[in-house]
Amino acid sequence: MKGNQTGDMSRHLNLLFTATANILRNKVRTILLILCLMAVLFPWITAISISEGIKFQSLLSVEEGADIYVTSDYFGSNGPIPLDYLDRFRKMEGVVSVFPRIVGRAYFVNRLATIVGILPENLPKSIHLARGRTFLEKGEVMVGKGLAQEFGLQPGVRFSLSINPSKLLKVMGIFDADATIWSSNLILMAFDDAGEFFKMKGKATDILVYTRPGYGSVLAKEIQEAGWDPPLRVQDKALVKRYFQRGFNYKAGVFTALYTVAFALAIPALLVISGFGQTERKKEIGVLKATGWQTQEVMEMVAIENLVISLTSAPLAILMSMVWLKWLNGAWIAQFFIAEIGLMAPFPIPSRFLPLPSILAFLFAVILTMVGSLYSTWRTAAVPPAEAMR
Amino acid sequence: MGKKIRFYLLFLIVLVCLTILAMAWDQYSWKGIRSDQMVAFQKMVGGLGMGAISSPIWNFINFDPRIQSVDDSTLWPIPGGYSYSPDRTATVSYFEEIPVNQLFISPSPQPSPPSRYDSQPRGEEKNEGKSNR
To answer: How far apart, in whole angstroms, are the C-alpha atoms of residue A49 and residue A337?
Structure first.
């Protein structure tokens, strides 16, 4: 029994060595096949890892955000909400704290910037800035690294925007690039300054309600059904998590669709490529059969060849993607997956290389190579050796 | 076994080990991020940003559906048609409006006494006030 097992093992090992020898002998075919597989797998691995990185940051944004977001409902869209509501919400049972916030947008030269106004007491001491300090006085702002880099903004620079030319703003700090991708084009200022800037004093874009654990959805329902005039639009954490789930898991944009097509096209392409040197391969198989090899052994050898090639190309694609994203910060390629960042992102491209996509990449490579070679090998191995060698 | 075969198999083992190690390092580096700048930033702004886009070009919904949960880009440039918003080409995330049921179906009104102008009691003509529930 043991002898049989050892014999089997040595037979498989011999097939592995023969397969490796074949791979090394057909250098051009092997290199072409590995390059093709890398070309197919590399964008997929890159996109999935960027998606996972953004997903991580996005989940953090949901978890660290408020429990309830309240805005006015203006003709079915979100509208500014008066600050009178702050006290009403504060008095509700289960509410821990209530803050107003302004989030708007304005063009900074040709770059669309996100303008955020928060209460100065919400500024944490632990926030780390690349340069300068946080805002303390009226008119002081902090800007994102993307804006600072593009327009050469430094602490001390004063500017105003056409939406309110009389409102003079002064850059006091520049965000650290490590914050998040959404801080890159941000202009952060005090809530009152943002109100003056947008000429909307006494109003917020949304009111953030923080509740005691377990009170979130109950309070959201209570606020929703209180019959305010004008009506309010209420979003609780559960709804925001649904956005998150749908945005990343159910609908991954055009990418999935495009890639399905790319994979589908890669199969016939590899069929052609792996048939590269097919005449020589036919002769090889004929010789093997003439020297006493069984069809099953020939098939096993080809399968091992494919496994070795897949095991070479999938890790190479993963490592290449890792080097491109981590060391080269996704230069040129990241803009296809994160909109509005340009050729060189001003922040570290978030990318996470998880085991499952890597295993899937290897499996894709195995499927592609197997589809491209097993059937043709079986057809060749099934004919008499003399005919195969002809 | 030839020298070249041995070398190639050794290269393969090193390559696989290196990939596994690099992925393990990546996982480890993300573990330390939670307490870092991202949390401080998100706490400060009350949660901002969700999609794979760094500025709210055209429409806020793909930047952060909390800020603008209504996708008004579907209203133009072609009403009811495909949205040409550039954020639709952001390839790894896509947010769309979550439908919220705003329908209230009132219970059927009590039949009121017929007035001298009515030939039939109100609420019985044309199934008025009846829901399809």
So the answer is: 10
How far apart, in Å, are the Cα atoms of A336 and each of A59, B14, B88?
Answer: 22, 32, 12
CA separation for the pair A332, A311 (Å, rounded):
27
Residue A143, beta-bridge partner list:
A174, A187
Q: Give the tokens for residue A243.
A: 């956005």
Structure-token match 């209230």, residue found: B104
pLDDT at B115: 57
Of the listed ranges A83-92, A189-198, A350-359, B33-42, the one predicted with least confidence: B33-42
Q: What pLDDT is recorded for position A343? A: 84
**Which of A323-327, A382-386, B1-5 comes out lowest in average pLDDT?**
A382-386
Q: What is the pLDDT of residues A293-314, one digit of tens each?
A: 888 888 999 999 999 999 999 9
Backbone φ and ψ for A30, nearest 5 degrees, come out as -60, -50
Give the burial class of A27: count Cβ atoms within 10 A of its Cβ; 0-12 exposed, 13-18 middle, 19 or more buried. Answer: exposed
Which pLDDT score, from 0 to 100, does residue A251 have? 55
* Side-chain-facing half-sphere of B87: CA atoms under 13 Å: 26
Chain A residues near residue B33 by CB distance under 8 angstroms: 56
Contact B56, B63 (CB under 8 A): yes
- Antiparallel, parallel or unpaired: β A111-118 and A186-190: parallel
Cβ of B91 and A337 within 8 Å?
Answer: yes
What ipTM goes with this model?
A: 0.84
pLDDT band at B62 (very low <50, low <70, confident <90, very high): confident
| Smallest Cα distance from A319 to chain B, Å | 6
Beta-bridged to residue A141, according to DSSP, are A171, A189
Polymer length in residues for chain A: 390
Residues of chain A contacting B34 with CB distance shorter than 8 Å? 60
Domain boundaries, chain B: 1-31, 38-98
Of A47, A146, A347, the CB nearest to B92: A47
A154-171: per-residue pLDDT in tens? 999 999 998 899 999 999
Interatomic CA distance for residues A89 and A78, integer angstroms: 18
DSSP state for residue A335 in the 8-state scheme: G
